Amino acid sequence: MWAFLIKRLAGGLLTLFVIATLCFAIIRFAPGSPFSSERKIPPEVLANIERKYGFDKDLHVQYGLRLRGYLSGDLGYSIKYERSVNELLFPSLRYSLMLGAIAFILAVTFGVALGIIAAARHNRIPDYLSMSVALTGICVPNFLLGPLLVMVFSLALSWLPVAGWPDGWSWGELSKIILPAIALSMVHIAYISRLTRAGMLDVLNKDFIRTARAKGLSEKVVFLKHVLKNGITPVVSYAGPMAAYILTGSVVVERIFNINGMGRHFVDSSLARDYDVVMGALLIYSTLVIGFNLVVDMAYSFLDPRVRLT
């Protein structure tokens, strides 16, 4: 176990180093700069601005200073917002994580439930209805689903708020998070339901399931205790990438529903060529993805004893 953790942590650090290096190179060699504008800046003013933010140094010197900052926990300084990247991103990260956690719970809960219904009623109407919902969720991306939800439930029916983030614990405030959570989780509900259905149907044909039924166990016990436990392993494998997709997908959803999360700062800073914010956001996203995948690998080994962590 410890050897596995050390190996994965070392690999994660190497991955973050490669991401930081590639991101630095791509951003710096891309056209434009943080100081580009429609009005031309006089050369002497531009030189003073570049000197202030350290852009007058050679690229390898800037790269070394940026890596040294990362090692000390400093993500840099935002030119657009004129504040530390740490102060900008970490407070907004909690909104992205909260939205992602709610979407993750919705995806697992409803996805597994639909998959169980489809497997228990295989080739019957509930199976067809569940898979139709899943297919719809896969076909409609969140950047289209979000505006559709707003048009139907906010503008047409006036059931839910259009956008924003809850400021309190009243229903009127908490209801603000329903639409963005649905928009973010729908595609994952679809995938999880299909994975659950396929995994459970595969397990239903195993010898130990026939033995359990021969012993007189009820169908409810067979499904929940034996079939679900062994058929849900594909969902666990999908959970790590799903967490990553939810975090990166929240970039679009946060923009649509005016949520002050890290994804919104990432988009705005990308358009403004705010180098340090873009790199800082990418490193935070990458760190979370690596961590999620590590947790999923460990959870998979606990669910299936045949899998060994090496």
What would the CATH topology of the domain at 97-261 be?
Answer: MetI-like fold
Q: Enumerate how many helices there are, as a single number.
A: 13
What Rg is obtained from the alpha carbons, in whole angstroms?
24 Å
- Summing up helix and strand content along with how strands pair, one would put the structural category as mainly alpha
CATH domain class of the domain at 97-261: Mainly Alpha
**Which CATH architecture of the domain at 97-261?**
Orthogonal Bundle
Question: What is the number of E strands?
Answer: 2
* DSSP helix fraction: over 70%
In round numbers, the mean pLDDT is: 80
What is the CATH superfamily classification of the domain at 97-261? MetI-like
SSE order, as H and E? HHHEEHHHHHHHHHH
Q: Tell me which oligomeric state these chains represent.
A: single chain
Give an account of the 3D structure.
The model has no long low-confidence stretch (mean pLDDT 80). This protein has a domain of 165 residues: Orthogonal Bundle (MetI-like fold), CATH 1.10.3720. Helix content is 75%, strand content 1%. Helix 4 packs across helix 11. It is built from 13 helices and two strands, in the order αααββαααααααααα. A two-stranded antiparallel sheet has the order 1-2. The N and C termini lie close together (7 Å). It has 310 residues and is mostly helical.
